Amino acid sequence: MQVTETLSEGLKRELKIDIPAGDLAAKLDNYMADMKSKANIKGFRPGKVPVAHLKKMYGRQAMAEILSNTIQETTQKAVEERSERPALTPEIDLPEEDAEKILAGDADLSFKMTYDVLPDFEIVDFAGIEIERPVVEIAESEVDEQVAQIAKNNTPFEPKEGSAADGDRVTMSYLGKIDGEPFEGGADENGMLVLGSGQFIPGFEEQLIGVKAGDEKVVELSFPEDYPAEHLAGKPATFDVVVKEVAAPGEATIDDEFAKGLGLESLDKLKEIVRGQIEGQFGQMTRQRVKRQLLDKLDEHYSFDLPEKLLESEFKIVWQQVEEDMKRNEKTFEDEETTEEEAKADYRKIAERRVRLGLVLSEIGEKNDIQVTEEELQRALYDRVRQFPGQEQQVFEFYKSNQQALASLRAPIYEEKVVDFMLELAKVTDKTVTKEELEKLVEEDEDDA
């Protein structure tokens, strides 16, 4: 194998690799010798098939496999010998006009490989980084408020005589139709609806005010223009409704019996769970704020050239998300008081920051031997699988057979572990804030992202 450097400019590298046809022929001979010992071809005794016959039948296929393996092995060896770290898998350029000759064993294998190397940079001492951690102290009134909301969501209803009023629960069967034909998802035999809750499309609940058990009513309305199901959006529809029961709301007494109705042993246990949920919610916001401060501090300390293809890949992801968001929200660049060119320049800076900080965190993790355990990866995989009820097996098999997809699960775990490692060494000071102050800080961070 002969390796010739044809380009070394900044982080860009281009190598020309030449492998003599004789080396390939030797590999083919070894391949055929191995095949001969195993081949079972009609008309020949096992192990007695002539090599010439095997080459005639399988030579081209064998050479294609040899070329693929040789290219993979030589590119890896070339990079290792140069002690370089490619940012992405090197691109291989094999001249098409030579392909047939190479497969036939009549030409040397000669190809180009191009890649960007990861930049070299020194890790700054982050032990002295100062971080202010905003912490919300959960007041008892906050817990009581959440428990009261749970009670409201579990309001008991008692059947009543007379007409349905705002706040009453109506149990009904209904059949929705468009142009006289039932449509998918527009029917229910025992639907429950609290009038005034806004659960159904506008106009439905209002037309049920005054109905009684046993009443039949045709509700006429139109689906909103922005209704998620496009085949229904803006369409006029009718619903044939049969009222089965009208029930009035009672009051839930917040006590141990109420908690037991939720499957808990006491009201204190319910409050304990609610407090934990609130702490978890604000804990995530605190974590988000602390991590943002840490990344901002790192961003101030590093400035180095980025691998172009890695940057383009990240920018493509960022820009695709921008376009999808704008389409979903029916926004234009003019609405945002900018132009596409200006927006691209701004989001390219975001992509640059992400790539640069990603490289820094990766380097810190590597130098400090931070690893993602198999258990952690499996837990993330199972969490992901649970997001697709009914398709668990297919999703599981997809990730297990796709290393790139599996890497997408490993990356955020690795990043969080590196952040945790750095925060243990940084100077972190707690500061008590109100929930409104914390929400504002997080909102400002998101606006600046």
TrEMBL record:
Q: Is the keyword Secreted assigned to this protein?
A: no
Which keywords fit this entry according to its UniProt record? Cell cycle, Cell division, Chaperone, Cytoplasm, Isomerase, Rotamase
Q: What does this protein do?
A: Involved in protein export. Acts as a chaperone by maintaining the newly synthesized protein in an open conformation. Functions as a peptidyl-prolyl cis-trans isomerase.
Keyword Cytoplasm part of the UniProt annotation? yes
Chief site of localization: cytoplasm
Protein's gene:
tig
Q: Which InterPro entries match?
A: PPIase_dom_sf (IPR046357), PPIase_FKBP_dom (IPR001179), Trig_fac (IPR005215), Trigger_fac_C (IPR008880), Trigger_fac_C_sf (IPR037041), Trigger_fac_ribosome-bd_bac (IPR008881), Trigger_fac_ribosome-bd_sf (IPR036611), Trigger_fact/SurA_dom_sf (IPR027304)
**Domain PPIase FKBP-type, which positions?**
167-227
Supply the domain comment: Consists of 3 domains; the N-terminus binds the ribosome, the middle domain has PPIase activity, while the C-terminus has intrinsic chaperone activity on its own.
Record's superkingdom?
Answer: Bacteria
Q: Which GO terms describe its molecular function?
A: peptidyl-prolyl cis-trans isomerase activity; protein folding chaperone; ribosome binding
Question: What subcellular locations does the record give?
Answer: Cytoplasm
An example of a Gene Ontology cellular component annotation for this protein is:
cytoplasm
**One Pfam family from the UniProt entry?**
FKBP_C
What does the sequence similarity comment in the record state about its family? Belongs to the FKBP-type PPIase family. Tig subfamily.
Give the catalytic activity.
Answer: [protein]-peptidylproline (omega=180) = [protein]-peptidylproline (omega=0)
Q: What is the protein name stated in its UniProt record? A: Trigger factor
Set out the biological process GO terms recorded for this chain's protein.
'de novo' cotranslational protein folding; cell division; protein transport; protein unfolding
* EC number, UniProt record: 5.2.1.8
